[in-house]
Amino acid sequence: MLTALPFLSDIVRYVIALLLLAASVGKLRSYGEFRGNLATSFGLPSAAAQFAAPALVAAELLLAGWLLAGGTYLPMLLSLLLLSTLTGVLAWRYFTHSVVRCSCFGEAARPVSQYDLLRNMLAVGINGSYFALAQETALPVATSLLAAGLAAIVCVALISLHDIATLAKAG
To answer: DSSP letters along 122-138, please?
Structure first.
C-alpha cells in the first residue's frame, strides 16, 4: 500500500534537484555576469570570485545530479546546507546593501527583490521538510514520474515567484 509520505518525499527531492539544476544552468548561461556579481554585490575579491563561481555551479550541478540519480539523505542534507548558506548571505547583503544582484537563476540585470528572498526561504523550508517526510520506500516508476512532474510545476512557480507576484500586484 502506498502512503502519501514517500510520494511527498519524492516530490520534495525532485523540487530541490530541479531548483539546483535550474540555478546552475542559469548561472552558466550568464556566467560572466554571475562571476562579476559575486565581486560587486557580494564583496568577494575578483580572484576569489574566479574560484567561487565555478565551485558554486559545480556544487549545484553535482547535487542536482546526485538527487536525480536517486540520492536521498546525504545530498538533501548537503543541499539544505548550501541553500541555507546562500539564502543567509543573500538576505544579509539585501538588508545591509540597497541593491544586490545575484544571478541566482540567470537574471543578472534585475536586482534581488523581497520575492527572491521569499523564494529562497521557501526552498530552504521545502528542503528541510524532507527530513520530516523522509522515507526509504521505493516507489513505482510511474509514481516517481508523477512526483517529478509535480515537482517541475512547483519549481517553475518558485523560480518565477518574482514575476508572478509582480504581475499579480499590477493586475
So the answer is: HHHHHHHHHHHH---PP
